[in-house]
Amino acid sequence: MFTGLIQSLGEVARRSARGTGARLTITAPGLARAPWVLGESIAVNGVCLTLIEGAGAEFSADLSAETLARTALGALRPGHPVNLERALKMGDPLGGHLVSGHVDGVATVVRLERDGEGRRLTIEIPRDLTRYVARKGSLCVDGVSLTVNGIEGAQAHFAIVPHTLSATTLGGLGAGDVVNIEVDLIARYLERLAHPA
């Protein structure tokens, strides 16, 4: 589990093909303060990946064909910045919201516009996910826990504060970019309880 509070920015160092998948190596000096643990979970732009090796400031993780098909990680190339978060430990503060790292879909950035020192972000989300998005609810965008300011049709609106702009990749987004989104876990479970199969 994660919180959607980004612990560090990283950068894709290498990407190599692995059968129908790929291997990503990421430089993450801000996360390397604690030793890497083989098999640990690390959220990369909101996608839970399993660490297969780590040394110094770098770690590697494999991407399955499913991950490449269902997330925006397939577009990552060397030099691309990424949002990073190590998994929660028992007793860690939960400052964002509960995030599993199991991405529900890919959204498209409609616009990112200046709003004083912050920005206003609008994304177009897949129509089948709109029922899980509520005004003042939470949505995880490229691994970042955000509060939904409004939802109109399939467009979700957010206010991005200056700290989030400087601590994540969101400030570098532009119209047409794709982002990973994960809807609120509680909404998914409530739907399942209300409509059991």
Question: What structural keywords apply?
Answer:
197 residues, Elongation Factor Tu (Ef-tu), domain 3, seven-stranded antiparallel sheet, six-stranded antiparallel beta barrel
Summarize the structure.
With 197 residues, the chain is mainly beta.
3D architecture notes:
The chain has 197 residues and is mainly beta. It has 2 domains: 8-86, Elongation Factor Tu (Ef-tu), domain 3; 105-194, Elongation Factor Tu (Ef-tu), domain 3 (Beta Barrel), CATH 2.40.30.20. 11% of the residues lie in helices and 43% in strands. The protein contains 3 helices and 13 strands. The chain has helices spanning 65-70, 162-167, 185-194, and strands spanning 8-18, 21-27, 41-44, 47-55, 58-63, 81-86, 105-115, 118-124, 138-141, 144-147, 150-152, 155-160, 178-183. The strands form 2 sheets. It has a 7-stranded antiparallel β-sheet. A hairpin with a 2-residue loop joins strand 9 and strand 10.
Largest sheet geometry:
7 strands, antiparallel
Judging by the overall fold, what is the CATH architecture of the largest domain?
Beta Barrel
- Note the gap between the termini: 26 Å
Highest-level CATH class of the largest domain: Mainly Beta
Supply the number of structural domains.
2
In terms of topology, how is this protein built?
Layout: E1 8-18, E2 21-27, E3 41-44, E4 47-55, E5 58-63, H1 65-70, E6 81-86, E7 105-115, E8 118-124, E9 138-141, E10 144-147, E11 150-152, E12 155-160, H2 162-167, E13 178-183, H3 185-194
Antiparallel strand pairs: 1-2, 1-6, 2-5, 3-4, 3-6, 4-5, 7-8, 7-13, 8-12, 9-10, 9-13, 11-12
